[in-house]
Amino acid sequence: MPITRRELIRNSSLLAAAGGSALAADTKAPPAAASAAGMNPPPPHLLADLADYERAAPTRMSEVAWNYFSGGAADEHTLRWNQEAYVRLRLRPRVLTDVSDLDLGVQLFGRRHPFPILLAPCAYHKLAHPEGEAASARGAAAAGATLVVSTSATTTLEEVSAATPEPKWFQLYVQPDRRFTEGLVRRAEAAGYETLVVTVDTPVLGPRHRETRTPFAMPPGMDRANLRGLVAATGGHRPTEQTIYSAMLDPKLTWKEITWLRSLTKRPFLLKGILNADDAARAIDHGADGLIVSNHGGRNLDTVPATIDALPEVAARVGGRVPVLVDGGVRRGTDVLKALALGASAVLIGRPYLHGLAVGGAEGVARVVGLLKREFAMAMALTGRRTVAEIDGSVIWR
Predict the structure, then answer these.
(1) CB atoms within 10 A of CB 321
(2) Mean pLDDT, rounded, of the chain
(3) What is the count of structural domains for the chain?
(4) What's the pTM?
(5) Which residues span the domain enclosing 58?
(6) Which residues are catalytic?
(7) Residue 308: inside a domain, yes or no?
(8) Which of 146, 294, 320, 371 lies 20 to 30 Å (CA to CA) from residue 364?
(9) How far apart are CA 295 and CA 326, in angstroms?
(10) Is 88 found in the same domain as 54?
């Protein structure tokens, strides 16, 4: 669960012990005030897990940015459930297995990944760090992970690709301007992106009240770099109170457009935002090479299930025909293990690597991924699994 401002105050002793200045006595001071006061996070060796990076991140960004990244829809039930559902799942380990040589690798769409953790598409990285998505790409590459670059990036997809030659995927928000949308696909192919990920769960945005209360606005000089030439590039992120629609989203998107998009590229083609097993089956019928079980990080429709709760039904319907990935709530190596046990081929993380980006730029991203990978290796060894192929439903305590 994302930390509250009060929890940030409560944990300020950790920051002070590491050499950073403690928060002022005014417990109502926002994270932005802490940053302005010169409060710095502990050195990396004192940040032991992803939660430590989450506690440190608000000291390195504005309150507007923190509320944007950490908030969810409405009462934020789904946002909380995404993490709580993993905690409820218990593990059934096996002992006296030789785990001296672990293989964390997985095959996805013709490429071997050294471990089953990818970096999910997230918007506006420059809100977390001046180098934005370019730093995220370098950090991902240093860690050996694949970054999925968002349509709503603050750095062009070409500039992100130039930051590192390592493999990257591109996430597409279908624009009302179909010619512009096709152009985005062509640009991604030309820039060397290996896989196209189409987000299908966002015809409109959900009620993100944290953003409204701040309120959210793109800082001067920052835009949606991939949408230059459209009103959506610099227009308001949120629709007005008179409408639920946004210039950067297409509420008319249907399965017909999925067929059209599939025809535009021979690259692997995934649909992101699947929670319903019927939609999963239909996606495969429409040419999807893979699926991402996602509830948009709890940011759109509140009270939908946690993604780990939705995963087994989707995976069962897919029946191994295509890879099924899952995002939302992954914070521990045991979470990665549980997701694979329940049918995922890999997981994606979002907020955690943005926390790393805010705290340490590219190095912070790499370290967050490295910490999660290390915990996953430990979880494999401690449950007696030597390879990803050995992770199945029997590792879950029923």
Answers:
(1) 14
(2) 90
(3) 2
(4) 0.90
(5) 5-70
(6) 296
(7) yes
(8) 294
(9) 9
(10) no
